[in-house]
Amino acid sequence: MASSTESPDTHQVLLASSSTLQVDWSWRKWQSRVSLASEPSKPIYIIHYNFWKSPSMIVKSASSDTTIGTGTLHAISINANYTIHGRKGKLKALKRWRTEYTHLSEAYATGSSPATMRWTSSSSFKTWDFICLDEQQMPVAKFSANWWGITNTANIEFMGPKATSEAARDEIVVTGMTLFYCMVLRINNLGSLFGAIFARPGPIKEGEQGGIGKKMGDETRKDV
Fold first, then answer.
1. Cα separation of 197 and 199, whole Å?
2. What CA–CA distance (Å, rounded) separates 56 from 137?
3. Measured distance CA(157)–CA(115) in Å, rounded
């Protein structure tokens, strides 16, 4: 039978390739192209940047040009805001001087309430890694920024049972890219130093989640 030629190992290779994204930077267009690592010539997302306006970045579908999400950075606050398919969210610092952030996730929720996700980081001579953990503190994604990359600036690896989920992929691309540039801004911006001093780090409390579950234009709930 023809199907017998595809071994479990082959299936794992295909799954792994479809669960890793490659981020390529275009200096000429001032944008990033995000594609499967196995098919870098076929972008899935196009990310447009304008760090002097709000939102600071816009993530669009490469095939339809529709907006997947946005990320907004702040000159002083060490927190960041984002939207995913029109729904508002917040990346909130858990620590003042260490890269540790949280956001509330609909893509990884197992019930009616959003899941509380946590981002941590580590760095080496070659990469700056941002790890996203679920509520059981299991890694679900790793955003690896390449210190020395000229065009290939980062890779995004997905893990766990939702490694091939489109909703999870959209969420991690938006939040991961927003967090990365939030940290780049913090390193290079004196205002962020004062923002860290006066910040109130900690878990996202009820009423300050940035409108999780609320679409833009819906004013029935207050955003913080």
1. 6
2. 30
3. 20
